[in-house]
Every structure is written in structure tokens, then in C-alpha cells.
């Protein structure tokens, strides 16, 4: 890997133009994109019901980019890229189905915006889901390239020309696809499948305004650091909604990219198809041959509205007339005439484009809307583990600390699954994590599989979406729960929504380990609890073990689950050094032991006679709360059942209801500040569904409602629950 300064690429614009058939297709598709924009504007009462943007002004660079893509490649388009989608073979009808949020929208089934594709289709580049959040696509797209690089390094990328009967010609646009009615999605695989002798690349399309986002810099940093096979195509129209380039940036993307040593750069006129074709061909050839990143900066005019909801006449003034002089369509028309095409032929191609768009529009208008009954489909992909399996307490096995059980679980996964890799801050090299929870794994499996990242929480989390799309299965770590906040954009916008908004095409298999909780003097930035915030994010699973056996079983289930899973690991339980946490150390389960997500466990049972006499209660808790409750319950022999939730989403509410109905009295215990917490929400739900069985109000206990954990241990003790506080609550509850 070389990090020294790399020369700027200079596109060879003297190269021979593309084949005549390619030029005909490009012209027809450029006309098609123009007709789409015209039709949408003329019918805005219908087409602007939902927001959309079109490619007008950007068609040349988008079609040039599409010309370099084959079915082995991965693409992250952005919301203005409908010409690029036409270029890779999608039909106007398919784009219109998404425009009108119709049932047969091939990308999302009517769930997301126009030109926000998700596509797994034989013979096409793969388009993983990405959100509409500005610049956020750079990290998942780079994660795709990272996953490709990893699988290639392990010999896991395989050519499969037999699987898909396709022709590969990265110098021509792919053949037109059908309407999508006979779509044959590629089967999910645990390995990267390529369908060409050419090596795969990733194309990340982005606007110049988005380049100012910090997460874009994280992506560029990792692309250079690991020399990843990705093209960042920056389409610069000098506008970001109503803000001009001069207002938004001190330099353009080409100048900005010069600071990333090892990122090769190209710059050309994105409104000139022939120049764009030559430039994109050179960029693609470089990435395929050298497996390193390229940034392409293409200047384009903005001829349409920013979006259908932000109209050009509101703010553009004379600028629109200036941009119109650079319209790529008449420029390409003139170039074709100079290359010997006849005017009559070009007019015929234009007429064909208009006829196709008009006919497809009528078809799309008549297409059915989604069935409202399907609104909740694809929140999650079906779980891989549904039953407990393996040996939890093998004969002769020693007891293990939670931290060792976590280490051994990851070790087992890396040994068994070659597509698995593990990365995060300080987990590589000798240290293996600041808690030694990954000790020496890098030595054992190599730096390609277990490695350190920069201090980039957004990349650590967001890259897993890209990894998942190619079949690489990432286990990652955010060093402390208090530092997860920079990753929230990616967790919310990219990971959590991918399965739902892609209509089940792209669930994100991601295991995110997060050390959490107070452990005696950790202070305000190493002691926080974050589960309530995470639990407001739909589409992710949240796991919280309280002992070594569950740690090992849940870790494996979380890895095997096809959905994003955040594994919260309490630092105070890692070594069982905190008084009262001795039971966190358990007999270590055998390799392969697994506990299904969403299943609570009774950690301590109440005495049957006292239960029958109505003298008992249940404590519903998780993590450190299990051990506080155990210690406190010694003052109430046989009277306290402890239900360990183990997984907070999906929540085993059936077990909660059953426990509450058994006892009639319940305490919900958490380490978090109580107000507006998951614990309070759960207590409210219990009161609603178990009201007739309750003999007392549902009690709750948590930390003080303060913004941080104080450093001084005496202050910390005052803020947090502890066994004495739990015992006081139990005494009041049992005596109610």
C-alpha cells in the first residue's frame, strides 16, 4: 500500500470515439432523459405528488459513467441520476413506477423517492440501498469497495460466467432490460460473485455540495488508506439547493481531493459526452487494473429544478440562461453530425425516445398501487437463529469471564466463517481493544481481517452496509457507547432503513459491539448508557447480555442474523470485579452455542409456595440490573423473580407479560436515567396490557435524570442505582 503523492490523471481526449451503435444508444437515452423531464413538468399535477429530481444538464456524464459499468460492478447513484439508471438498462416505465410510488416499483415497492434505486438483477450492476441524506452514500459505497478488496485478498471472489448468461463489454452500454415483470434477482451469497473476467469496481456518484460533509472525508481517507477499487464521481453544477458554490466551499472537489495522497484525480467537462466517455473509461481502467481509488470532477449545468419542490424560477435568475448554453444535448447532437450521423436518423431516435416515454407514462399511470396490508413487510429479514442450540454448560468446562467469552465467540466466528472480519479503533495489532476483548486476534487472523481504523465512528458503522452488500460480514466496535453519536447518521439513515426501503433486497448484516455502562470512576465520557436512544431507531436489533454464557450465545446469533445488531457489553461485567457481579462469570458454552435474539430468560425464580401465597414480585431488567437485583433480593428470600430481557429489540414481551401476570407486582430496573427511557416505556406498556392482573403500580428505578455520569465515585454512586436502592424499591413494592 502506497500513500505517497500520486500524479493527477490526464484524460486522453484524442482517443477514438465509441462505436456508432453506442453513440446511437447514448443519443436515444439522452433524448429519453430530456423527455422524462419534459413530461414530468407538463404533468406536474400528477408527477410532483411525490418529490423528484431529474438529470437535465447532467445526462452526458451520467451516460458516460454508465457506459463503463458491467454486471460485476456496484453503483451508488444519487437522486439526480435517472440518466445513469437509463444507461445501465433500466426502462422509463420502471423509473415512473417509483416516481408514482406504485406497487411494482422494482426498487422499493413504492416506499422511497424517485431515482433512489436498490437493485439485484441478473445482468445489471448491483445497486445497494442508500438514503437521501446528503453525502451519506460515500461511506456505504466505500464499504462496498472495502468488502471487495477484503474478499479478493482472501481468495473469496469467484467468477461465475456460467451462473448468468451475459455479455460483458465495459466499453458499451448494456442492452436494454425488459419491463421488470420477469425479473430474476441474483440469489444471496456469502461470497462476492463476479460475472465477468474484469475485476469489479464501485462507482459512487455524488454532488459537489455534498463533498463538504465530514463523512465524505472519512470515506476518502479509508479509500486511500486501503487503496480501494472505487470511483467517486462528483457532478458539480455549482448549486446546493439555493446556495451557490462560492457560498458553500473554499475549493471545488478536485482541489479538495489533492489533500488525499494516493487518490488519483480527473477533471473534465461533464456536459461533453465524448470528453466524459474518454475520462470515465480511463478512470474505470485505472481502478480495474490498479485497484486504487479515483476521484472524477465533472462540471455540469443544472437545467432542471433542484427538485420538483424547489423550482428553478424561485432563485436562479440569469444563472439558468448561462447554464443553458452548456446544455449537453445540443452539443452531443452537433458532435454526432460532425461524426457523420444524418439529421434524419437523429430525429428518428428522438421520436422513438418520446414515443417510449409517452407510452410508459400511460402504463405507469394505470399500474396498481401497493397493497396497504403490506405496509409492515421487511422491517427485518427473517432471523437465522430461532432456537437455542449447542452446549451451554459442557461437562468439565471452566468458568469464563464475560470479556473472555466475547473474545472466544469472535475467535470462533473468524475461524469458522472466512467472510467474517473485525475492525474498529485499537482492536488490531497487539492491544486487541482497550478492554482486551479482541486480544491477539489480529496476530492470529492477519491484518486484512482484524485491523484498526482511524477515529471514524461513522465509517466503522456505515461501512458495514457496503460490506454486507457484497457478502463480507463485518463485526465492528465503537470503543465506548459515549462516542457512538458520530455514527448515528449511518446507523439511522443507511443501516436501519435498508431492508425496509429496498423491499427486502438489501438487509444489512452488521454486528456492532459497543462497551457500555458505568464501572467505577469512568467519568462522563466512558460511563454512559444509550439503549433508549438506540431503541428509537426502527430496523436495528439491540442485545444486552448479563453473563458470559449469554454473551457467547448471543454474539453468535447476532453475527448470524441478517440484520443490523448492536451488542451492548457492560464494562463493569467484563471481569466480574465489581462487587455483586460474580455471577456474570459462568461456565463457558461450547463452540457453536447459540441463543436466539428476542428471548428473555428467568435469571432467578421465586419460591413456589410464596408465589402461590401472593408474596412475590418480578424484577424486569438486563445487564448490570440483573446483578443489582440478585444482590438486593437476598433480603427477600424466595420472593423475587428476576427476568433478564437479554434482547431489548426484539423484545420478548410475551415473557414479560407472563411474569407480570404470575406475580401481580413488577419493578422495571435500568441503569439509564429514568425519565423518558425504555424502562418507563416498558412500564407504561405493562400497565396497559396487564392492568387487571396488577396488585400494585408498576415500579421503575433508574439513574438520576442528569446529562452525564460524574467522575468522582461518590457522586457516581449517588446518581446510579445500586443494590441498596433496589432493595428499598422491592420492600415498598412487596409491601404494597
From TrEMBL:
Residues 161-172 have a biased composition (Polar residues). SMART domains: Transket_pyr. Its cofactor is thiamine diphosphate. Residues 161-181 are annotated as: Disordered. It comes from the Bacteria. SUPFAM superfamilies: Thiamin diphosphate-binding fold (THDP-binding), TK C-terminal domain-like. Its EC number is 1.2.4.4. Residues 400-576 form the Transketolase-like pyrimidine-binding domain. It is an enzyme of class 1 (oxidoreductase). Keywords: Oxidoreductase, Thiamine pyrophosphate. E1 component of the 2-oxoglutarate dehydrogenase (OGDH) complex which catalyzes the decarboxylation of 2-oxoglutarate, the first step in the conversion of 2-oxoglutarate to succinyl-CoA and CO(2). PANTHER family: 2-OXOISOVALERATE DEHYDROGENASE SUBUNIT BETA, MITOCHONDRIAL, 2-OXOISOVALERATE DEHYDROGENASE SUBUNIT BETA-RELATED. This is 3-methyl-2-oxobutanoate dehydrogenase (2-methylpropanoyl-transferring). It comes from Hymenobacter yonginensis. The lineage of its organism: Bacteria, Pseudomonadati, Bacteroidota, Cytophagia, Cytophagales.
Amino acid at each position: 500500500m502506497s500513500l505517497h503523492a500520486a500524479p493527477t490523471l490526464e484524460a486522453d481526449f484524442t482517443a477514438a470515439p465509441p462505436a456508432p451503435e453506442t453513440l446511437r444508444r447514448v443519443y436515444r437515452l439522452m433524448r429519453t432523459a430530456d423527455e422524462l423531464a419534459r413530461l414530468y413538468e407538463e404533468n406536474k399535477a400528477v408527477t410532483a405528488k411525490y418529490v423528484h429530481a431529474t438529470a437535465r444538464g447532467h445526462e452526458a456524464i451520467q451516460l458516460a459513467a454508465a457506459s463503463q459499468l458491467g454486471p460485476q460492478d456496484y453503483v451508488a447513484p444519487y437522486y439526480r441520476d435517472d440518466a445513469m439508471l437509463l444507461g445501465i438498462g433500466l426502462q422509463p416505465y420502471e423509473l415512473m413506477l417509483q416516481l408514482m410510488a406504485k406497487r411494482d416499483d422494482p426498487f422499493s415497492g413504492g416506499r422511497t423517492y424517485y431515482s433512489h434505486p436498490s437493485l439485484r438483477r441478473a445482468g445489471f450492476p448491483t445497486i445497494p440501498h442508500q438514503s437521501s441524506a446528503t453525502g451519506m452514500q460515500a461511506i456505504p459505497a466505500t464499504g462496498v469497495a472495502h468488502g471487495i478488496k477484503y474478499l479478493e485478498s482472501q481468495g473469496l471472489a469467484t467468477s461465475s460466467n456460467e451462473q448468468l448468461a451475459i455479455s460483458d463489454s465495459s466499453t458499451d452500454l448494456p442492452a436494454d432490460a425488459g419491463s421488470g415483470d420477469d425479473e430474476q434477482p441474483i440469489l444471496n451469497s456469502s461470497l462476492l460473485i463476479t460475472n465477468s473476467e474484469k475485476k469489479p469496481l464501485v462507482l459512487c456518484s455524488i454532488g459537489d455540495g455534498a463533498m463538504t460533509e465530514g463523512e465524505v472525508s472519512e470515506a476518502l481517507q479509508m479509500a486511500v488508506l486501503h487503496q480501494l477499487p472505487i470511483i467517486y464521481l462528483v457532478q458539480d453544477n455549482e448549486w446546493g439547493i439555493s446556495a451557490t458554490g462560492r457560498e458553500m466551499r473554499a475549493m471545488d472537489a478536485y482541489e479538495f481531493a489533492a489533500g488525499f495522497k494516493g487518490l488519483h484525480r480527473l477533471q473534465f467537462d461533464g456536459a461533453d459526452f465524448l470528453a466524459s466517455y474518454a475520462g470515465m473509461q480511463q478512470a474505470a481502467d485505472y481502478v480495474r487494473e490498479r485497484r486504487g481509488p479515483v476521484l472524477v470532477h465533472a462540471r455540469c449545468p443544472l437545467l432542471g429544478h433542484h427538485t420538483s419542490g424547489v423550482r428553478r424560477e424561485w432563485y436562479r435568475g440569469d444563472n439558468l440562461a448561462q447554464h443553458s448554453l452548456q446544455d449537453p444535448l445540443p452539443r452531443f447532437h452537433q458532435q454526432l453530425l460532425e461524426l457523420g450521423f444524418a439529421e434524419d436518423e437523429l430525429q428518428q431516435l428522438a421520436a422513438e425516445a418520446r414515443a417510449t416515454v409517452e407510452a410508459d407514462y400511460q402504463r405507469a399511470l394505470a399500474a396498481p398501487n401497493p397493497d396497504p396490508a403490506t405496509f409492515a413487510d421487511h422491517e427485518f429479514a427473517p432471523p437465522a437463529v430461532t432456537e437455542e442450540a449447542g452446549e451451554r454448560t459442557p461437562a468439565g468446562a471452566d468458568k469464563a469471564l464475560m470479556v473472555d467469552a466475547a473474545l472466544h465467540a469472535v475467535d470462533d466466528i473468524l475461524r469458522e466463517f472466512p467472510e467474517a472480519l473485525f475492525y474498529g479503533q485499537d482492536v488490531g495489532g497487539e492491544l486487541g481493544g482497550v478492554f482486551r476483548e479482541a486480544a491477539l486476534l489480529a496476530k492470529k487472523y492477519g491484518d486484512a481481517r482484524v485491523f484498526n481504523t482511524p477515529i471514524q465512528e461513522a465509517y466503522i458503522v456505515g461501512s458495514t452496509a457496503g460490506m454486507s452488500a457484497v457478502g463480507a460480514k463485518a463485526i465492528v466496535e465503537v470503543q465506548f457507547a459515549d462516542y457512538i453519536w458520530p455514527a448515528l447518521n449511518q446507523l439511522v439513515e443507511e443501516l436501519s432503513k435498508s431492508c425496509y426501503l429496498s423491499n427486502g433486497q438489501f438487509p444489512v448484516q452488521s454486528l456492532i459491539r459497543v462497551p457500555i455502562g458505568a464501572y467505577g470512576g469512568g467519568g462522563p465520557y466512558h460511563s454512559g448508557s444509550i439503549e433508549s436512544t438506540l431503541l428509537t431507531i426502527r430496523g436495528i436489533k439491540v442485545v444486552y447480555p448479563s453473563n458470559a454464557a449469554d454473551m457467547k450465545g448471543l454474539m453468535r446469533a447476532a453475527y448470524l442474523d441478517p440484520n443490523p445488531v448492536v451488542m451492548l457489553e457492560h464494562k463493569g461485567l467484563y471481569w466480574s470485579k465489581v462487587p455483586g457481579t460474580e455471577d456474570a462469570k459462568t461456565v463457558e458454552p461450547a463452540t457453536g452455542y447459540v441463543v436466539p435474539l428476542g428471548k428473555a430468560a428467568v435469571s432467578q425464580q421465586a419460591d413456589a409456595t410464596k408465589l402461590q401465597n401472593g408474596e412475590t414480585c418480578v424484577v424486569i431488567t438486563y445487564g448490570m440490573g440483573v446483578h443489582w437485583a440478585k444482590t438486593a433480593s437476598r433480603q427477600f428470600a424466595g420472593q423475587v423473580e428476576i427476568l433478564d430481557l437479554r434482547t431489548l429489540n426484539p423484545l420478548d414481551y410475551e415473557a414479560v407479560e407472563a411474569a407480570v401476570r404470575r406475580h401481580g407486582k413488577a419493578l422495571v430496573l435500568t441503569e439509564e436515567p429514568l425519565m423518558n427511557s425504555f424502562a418507563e416505556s416498558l412500564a407504561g406498556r405493562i400497565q396497559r396490557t396487564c392492568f387487571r392482573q396488577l396488585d400494585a403500580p408498576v415500579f421503575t428505578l433508574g439513574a438520576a435524570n442528569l446529562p452525564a455520569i460524574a467522575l468522582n465515585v461518590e457522586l457516581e454512586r449517588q446518581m446510579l442505582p445500586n443494590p441498596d436502592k433496589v432493595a428499598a424499591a422491592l420492600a415498598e413494592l412487596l409491601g404494597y
